[in-house]
Write a structure and sequence with these properties.
Layout: H1 2-9, H2 11-23, H3 28-44, H4 48-63, H5 68-78, H6 85-114, H7 117-137, H8 139-147, H9 155-173, H10 177-188
Amino acid sequence: MVSAISGFTSIPGDLYALTKDFLDSDHRWDNETDRIRLLTLLKKGATSDDLRKLIRLVVEQYFKRLNEEQLEKILVKMGGSVAGSFAFKFLFVNEIVSRFFSRIIPKFLFSAGMTGIITIGASVSRSIYSSRDLMKKNREVYALLRGAGDLDLLYFLLQENIDPWLDAITLQEINSPLAKEVFVNFLGGLHDA
């Protein structure tokens, strides 16, 4: 029921996205180029595997920035040993992606089915503008997703759930003390997942 309500409440946002796209004459060429990229992606057959790949790439960006001590803490928390940390890192990222995917995608699909025709046009606009927002937020992740088959254009589908990972990556990049706090919270939530 909550997904249905959120689907219906997104209609004003959809209308805003369509209006913004229509009135944004400064970016018409870029928008058209991105529409072509999106249609090419959809024509090739974008699947749930593409969404899974998008999630995996972002989560890997977070984990590759963890230091050895943090990786050891995850190993201990998960009941592993320090030996085989590379294999563990690979398996752990896949486990995170699987859990993330199994919880988020069913909710999204139900919500997407409830909003109707307006959403189709708005989704194109949201895809384009969310991709640009991603480029502003984290240029490295944007380039990685775009290079992996224009997955940056699917970012809007998972934006609400991916943004905390992007924020954590940004904290790691600027070497903020908050990055350690985020890691401690993440570590504490491992058994809750």
